[in-house]
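Hey, resending since the last one bounced:
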Amino acid sequence: MFPEKGLAREEVLERMRTLKKADADWQGGRTWSLIYPAGEEVDELLRDANNLYMFENALNPFRFPSLRQMEIDVVGVTASLLHAPEGADGCMTSGGTESIIMAVKAARERARAERGVTKPEIVLPESAHPAFYKAATYLGLETKQIPLDKDLRADVDAAAGLIGEQTALVVGSAPNYPFGTVDPIPELAALASERGISFHTDSCVGGFLLPFLEKLGHPIPPFDFRVPGVTTMSADVHKYGYATKGASVVLHRERDHLMKYQLFVFDNWPGGFYGSFAMAGARPAAPIAAAWAVIHYLGEEGYRRLVSNAYEAAQRIRSGIEAIPELRVWGDPLATLLSFGSEKIDIFAVADVMDDRGWHLDRQTGPNALHMMVSPIHARVADTLLEDLRSAVAHHGTSRGTEARYSGPAD
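The structure tokens again:
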């Protein structure tokens, strides 16, 4: 019910603080997805950047040229990080889902214009993010799933059999969300390229993670614009780019040839010319400002440090999990995402015990697993987590339910 009278400011805030007590404890390192803490200094910067641009609207770059310049800068930094060639371009969106939707829209329009496709299809791995299915539902495409091989990566031979005349887009993940494994991007992109089909590398998670691991000397399989045939990529600044929520980038290999298929323009109304590269009309300015601020605050040195800390914590946790005889890490995750389960015990019973001890581990199925996205903050709680996990495995009881609980999307 709409309140008849307004409340005092402090009462409003106190009610909000009371509601917030039920939220997950991400500041204490107890949450393993959704939020990516980089430390109090970064948090303070993000607060200031958000406050500077709390009320502006990024819809009109002519009224707020500072926002347009910051978006150009963020897109440019991301493009260089992912080795985009000269002539590449892109834009910022509200998150990985919107970036993926825009990439799918561009691929559909390209397939119609260049190949006469009338019943467009997406060929994508079973492990691809649900945002592709959302895009297919919204934009009228059919989906064809590529089965996974024994390493939980897209099966290239199976993919070859699924690509046809109506294929508008082929997809690979670097890494995928469920297992943290990287699909065979060069092989999949080649299958698409030889037929003039768009290929999208979903690097929403890995875009600000894998490049710095590579710079730190870790072997990373080819996944970015250095791979021939990759036409679009998505990378979230609000994941391992450490910006506040609402900041992602979608990139096109060719501005003039490919990005035009993403653009929406309209002028047949009294309001004048309207153009947009994203789904949203009015666009919050604060995420753009926060993304620009954190990139320039951390620089390459800061990102290397944070990625190194997160990676080392993830490897320590992985080693600890693998040392528990009843547990098994699924696949061979390359970076800071991992999922683990068991062929001996009910992993969801273990999860129930971990819930009771204040940990928030996401549940997955196919196979049943607990899922983790490791951030730098988790280095300080890794030993405690493993101690509780060993205890939960040793004393696991009857699960309160063997179905995976919804943990929210990966954006």
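Confidence is low (pLDDT under 50) at residues 397-409.

Sorry for the duplicate.
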